[in-house]
Automatic annotation (TrEMBL):
Single GO biological process annotation from the record: polyamine catabolic process
Family: Belongs to the aldehyde dehydrogenase family.
InterPro entries: Ald_DH/histidinol_DH, Ald_DH_C, Ald_DH_N, Aldehyde_DH_dom
Keyword NAD assigned: yes
Coiled coil stretches, renumbered: none
Superkingdom of source: Eukaryota
Cleaved signal peptide residues: none
Protein name: Aldehyde dehydrogenase domain-containing protein
Gene3D superfamilies assigned to the protein according to its UniProt record, in alphabetical order: Aldehyde Dehydrogenase, Chain A, domain 1 (3.40.605.10), Aldehyde Dehydrogenase, Chain A, domain 2 (3.40.309.10)
């Protein structure tokens, strides 16, 4: 931004995220579990919209956690060109050591008994690890989801679509997925809120970053404007 300001350049930035996935009482447990796990470990977790904060209502927390652990343990780590491999290596040696700074884990990892003040809850690690917290009601879920300097994306799983719309309106993020995660369409704008970026990619909103709006006033009468 500092360099661009010298020449008054417009910017579109996508800078990172700490994606919350919210699972409420009425959800398809298998769908939420699968989406939470697959979107966390996709691309070794090196994804700005990886589901790294999983918030689950207390009434289904234990069942969800057991299911999430079960599917996560089935993901083999290995050479990316081997057919059985689900998670390959991290992108570089430098990034490997950066991820290891948070603790000795690289294989798919799930952390419980985490407090929102902890680094693993607040910082974007960019690796295959997630925290799983429970909440009691909608207000607490929103408070936990929005307790972040990031606001790139979020997912919400429930069979109650009316509740989904109500909760989605309260989430501070540029994109909200309902009963899915990381779906994309070139016609739909993508970008973040808060410190997740400026502007939008894709869609009409994405094109606006590349053109300047010009206004042309034409007087077609005989009276000069005052």
């Amino acid at each position: 931004m500092k360099l661009g300001s010298i020449h008054m350049k417009k910017l579109t930035l996508e800078t990172g995220g700490k994606f919350p996935l919210i699972g409420v009482r009425r959800l398809k447990l298998g769908l939420g579990r699968s989406m939470g796990s697959s979107r966390l470990h996709f691309n070794q977790g090196e994804l700005c919209t990886a589901t790294t904060r999983i918030l689950v209502q207390d009434t289904i927390f234990d069942r969800f956690l057991d299911a999430l652990k079960s599917i996560t343990l089935k993901y083999p780590v290995g050479q990316p060109f081997e057919e059985k491999t689900y998670l390959g290596p991290l992108v570089s040696k430098a990034h490997f050591h950066r991820v290891r700074e948070y603790g000795y884990f690289v294989s798919p990892s799930i952390f419980v008994d985490v407090k929102p003040s902890m680094r693993i809850y607040r910082e974007e690690i960019f690796g295959p690890c997630a925290v799983v917290l429970q909440f009691q009601d909608e207000d607490e879920a929103l408070r936990l989801a929005n307790d972040s300097m990031y606001g790139l994306g979020s997912a919400l799983f429930t069979e109650n679509i009316s509740k989904a719309h109500n909760v989605a309106r309260g989430i501070e993020a540029g994109t909200i997925w309902v009963n899915s995660s990381n779906d994309s369409d070139f016609r739909v704008p993508f970008g973040g809120a808060k410190q997740s970026g400026i502007g939008r990619e894709l869609g009409d909103a994405g094109l606006e970053a590349y053109y300047n709006i010009k206004a042309i006033h034409v007087n077609i009468g005989n009276i000069l404007p005052i």
